[in-house]
Amino acid sequence: MNTFKINLCLITLTFSVVGTINARAENNSSTNTVQIRSIFIAPTSNKDGRDPFFPESTRMVQVAPTNHVAEISSLKVPGISGPPDHRLAIINNHTFAAGDEGDVLTTTGRIHLRCVEIQKDAVIVEVNGQLHRIILEQE
User: Fold this and answer.
1) Cβ atoms of 123 and 89 closer than 8 Å
2) For the sheet containing 79-81, what is the strand order?
3) Radius of gyration of the chain from Cα atoms?
4) Would 116 be classed as within a structural domain?
5) Strand 101-106 versus strand 109-118 pairing type
6) Is the dihedral of CA 56, 58, 61, 66 positive or negative?
7) Which domain holds residue 131?
8) Does some domain include residue 28?
9) pLDDT per residue as tens digits for the range 42-81
10) Domain total for the chain?
């Protein structure tokens, strides 16, 4: 019988506390309006956060543009092939036709270039808005 009284007191106390909390919440909600908003902070580096599906992606991180100076002397043309009306040139292990654009790997990093013209013994490319003539390497 003693446990019954203790349980009844605990239940009564619980209901009275819950009722008090609900009454205070109703009073506060009528006087104060609070809007809950989600706040997302863009990470400043990959250490702060990554895209879980594309962990190597940098689209979430604010990346400052780099002023990469293209090392034109590291561009090599080991071969030119094809008929005169449709020539193909290999520039740093990447095949280009006239008008093609792409990135090539160099010792200083990637260089984005556009193949303007393929001549018999040279290739004219555009890098950062400047035209350069790369001569075919002789064996």
Assistant:
1) yes
2) 79-81, 88-91, 94-97
3) 35
4) yes
5) antiparallel
6) positive
7) 72-135
8) no
9) 777 777 777 778 777 777 666 555 555 667 888 999 999 9
10) 1
Secondary structure letter of residue 39 according to DSSP: -
Angle 23-25-31 (CA atoms, 0-180°, nearest 5)?
A: 110
**CATH number for 120:** 2.30.30
CB contact set of 3 (below 8 Å; sequence gap of 6+): none
pLDDT tens column, 126-138: 998 899 999 998 8
Amino acid (one-letter) located at 85? D
Residue pair 113/130 in contact (Cβ under 8 Å)? The answer is no
Which helix H or strand E contains 97, and what residues bound it? strand 94-97
| Helix, strand counts (H, E) of the chain | 1, 7
User: Is residue 119 included in any domain, yes or no?
Assistant: yes
Q: How many residues does the chain have?
A: 139
CB-based contacts of 126, cutoff 8 Å, min separation 6: 113, 114, 116, 132
Taking alpha carbons only, the member of 114, 22, 127 closest to residue 68 is: 127
> Does residue 129 lie within any of the structural domains?
yes
Q: What is the largest CA-CA distance in the chain?
A: 107
